[in-house]
Amino acid sequence: MALLAEAERTGSNPSQLIRKSWHVYQEQQQLDDRLAQLESRLTRRVFEIVSAVAGLSDTERQQAMAQAKQQLKGAA
Q1: 0.85 surpassed by pTM
Q2: Taken in order 5, 10, 13, 15, is the CA torsion positive or negative?
Q3: Buried b (16+ CB within 10 A) or exposed e, 5-35
Q4: pLDDT (tens digit, 9 = 90+) per residue, 29-69?
Q5: Is 48 in contact with 41 (CB distance < 8 Å)?
Q6: Cα separation, 25 vs 17, whole angstroms
Q7: Cα 31 from chain centroid?
Q8: What is the pLDDT of residue 29?
Q9: DSSP H helical segments within the chain, as ranges?
C-alpha cells in the first residue's frame, strides 16, 4: 500500500520507484565502502606518523600495530 501511495504521490509507477530505491541503496553501499576504505587509510597513515614521531624501530612498530589491532578488534 505504501509503495502505491508513494508512486501516486511522485507521479511514477511502482516499478520505477523500486528501481530508484535500489539505485539509491547501491549508491549508499558504495559510499559506505569508500568511507570504510578512507578510514582504514587514514588510520594507517596516522599510525605511521605517530610511530615515526615516537621514534619506534620497525620491530617496535610491528609490535605496536599488532597490539593496536587486538585492542581495536576487542572494542568492535
Answers
A1: no
A2: negative
A3: eebeeeeeeeeebeeeeeeeeeeeeeeeeee
A4: 999 999 999 999 999 999 999 999 999 999 999 999 999 98
A5: no
A6: 12
A7: 7
A8: 98
A9: 2-10, 14-54, 58-75
Q: Letter for the amino acid at 27?
A: E
Q: Domain map of the chain by residue range?
A: 2-75
* Spatial distance between the Cα atoms of 20 and 13, rounded to a whole number of angstroms: 11
Q: How far apart are CA 63 and CA 55, in angstroms?
A: 14
Q: Let me know: does 22 contact 36? Beta carbons within 8 Å.
A: no
Evaluated on CA atoms 38, 60, 57, 53, the torsion sign reads positive
DSSP state for residue 11 in the 8-state scheme: T
At position 4, the amino acid (one-letter code) is: L
